[in-house]
């Protein structure tokens, strides 16, 4: 049976009963409109913990003005079915006013590692993400929290926050789940027209090309990124936000590969901004 909590107090009540029984808790933070990518995180959390809380919350403070906060897709009934089917027992689904005090003035700001990639074009994004994830970790008292490599910089930033603040939670990174044709699953894929959906394949094709070059021994970032950009630029509906190579542990630009690297991109397909990436040498 799936319990729905809409306030932190309701969620804490359920969690405190679990903790009193000595049960372990897994947390899967999401913005809802769930797909098989989210499902893979939930199933892993269910396999590794006694109980799992999934949060479904479109977090306003991680969106900048002009981004898609209002239009972000929502379908809580379908989300509940997927969550229950995957074996989680608690879903936390607050309204913004349930989670944020009107006079809240505390934010979690992870510096440095947020300067590149998405942090460049979305300068307030990670502050919003870290603040809400910190709140969700506190509410759930999670032993483990699950994040997708789809949002690779987010995963690195959360790991750093947990380390720097000595938080008692283990961060678990999970592989990217893709459509059969390669497109990384994303709630935002629903924005794409049929023509854009085809054009969006340039992202995973660029990932495959970058991976192929690096597996063949290429170590120059400029060469790898040049080939990837060329492929993307050949698609008329695509506009590059960034295609970059950074060190995987601290997200700093890399010129020549000599350790684990993240090769990440954000590309507009029409008005929709999509991301994809691969990690090499981990
Ligand atoms: P979101 O609902 O987009 O905020 O994503 C919630 C969590 O699911 C994040 O940790 C994402 O990285 C993860 N996620 C989203 N899409 C995928 C995917 N295609 N494969 C694996 N994890 C994903």
From TrEMBL:
Its EC number is 6.3.2.1. It catalyses: (R)-pantoate + beta-alanine + ATP = (R)-pantothenate + AMP + diphosphate + H(+). The active site is at 38 (proton donor). Beta-alanine binds at residue 62. Pathway: Cofactor biosynthesis; (R)-pantothenate biosynthesis; (R)-pantothenate from (R)-pantoate and beta-alanine: step 1/1. It holds the Pfam family Pantoate_ligase. GO terms for biological process: pantothenate biosynthetic process. ATP binds at residues 31-38, 148-151, 177, 185-188. This is Pantothenate synthetase. InterPro entries: Pantoate_ligase, Pantoate_ligase_C, Rossmann-like_a/b/a_fold. Keywords: ATP-binding, Cytoplasm, Ligase, Nucleotide-binding, Pantothenate biosynthesis. The reaction proceeds by a bi uni uni bi ping pong mechanism. Catalyzes the condensation of pantoate with beta-alanine in an ATP-dependent reaction via a pantoyl-adenylate intermediate. PANTHER family: CYTIDYLATE KINASE/PANTOATE-BETA-ALANINE LIGASE (PTHR21299), PANTOATE--BETA-ALANINE LIGASE (PTHR21299:SF1). CDD domains: PanC. (R)-pantoate binds at residues 62, 154. It is an enzyme of class 6 (ligase). It comes from the Bacteria. One of its GO terms (cellular component) is cytosol. It comes from Senegalimassilia anaerobia. The keyword ATP-binding applies. Belongs to the pantothenate synthetase family.
């Amino acid at each position: 049976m799936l319990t729905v909590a809409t306030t932190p107090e309701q969620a804490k009540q359920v969690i405190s009963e679990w903790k009193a029984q000595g049960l372990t808790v897994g947390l899967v933070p999401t913005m809802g409109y769930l797909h098989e990518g989210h499902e893979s995180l939930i199933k892993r959390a269910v396999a590794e913990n006694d109980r799992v809380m999934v949060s479904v919350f479109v977090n306003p403070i991680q969106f900048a003005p002009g981004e898609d906060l209002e239009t972000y897709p929502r379908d809580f009934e379908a989300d509940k079915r997927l969550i229950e089917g995957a074996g989680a027992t608690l879903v936390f689904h607050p309204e913004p006013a349930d989670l944020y005090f009107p006079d809240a003035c505390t934010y979690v700001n992870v510096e440095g590692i947020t300067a590149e990639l998405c942090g460049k074009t979305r300068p307030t994004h990670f502050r919003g993400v870290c603040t809400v994830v910190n709140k969700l970790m506190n509410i759930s008292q999670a032993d483990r929290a699950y994040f997708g490599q789809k949002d690779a910089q987010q995963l690195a930033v959360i790991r750093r926050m947990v380390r720097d603040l000595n938080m008692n939670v283990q961060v678990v990174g999970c592989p990217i789940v893709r459509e059969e044709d390669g497109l990384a699953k994303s709630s935002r894929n629903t924005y794409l027209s049929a023509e854009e959906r085809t054009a969006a394949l340039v992202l995973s094709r660029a990932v495959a090309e970058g991976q192929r070059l690096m597996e063949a021994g290429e170590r120059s970032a400029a060469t790898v990124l040049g080939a990837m950009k060329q492929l993307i630029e050949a698609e008329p509906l695509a506009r590059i936000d960034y295609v970059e190579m950074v060190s995987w542990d601290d997200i700093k630009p890399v010129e020549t590969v000599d350790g684990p690297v993240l090769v990440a991109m954000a590309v507009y397909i029409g008005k929709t901004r999509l991301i994809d990436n691969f990690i090499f040498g981990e």
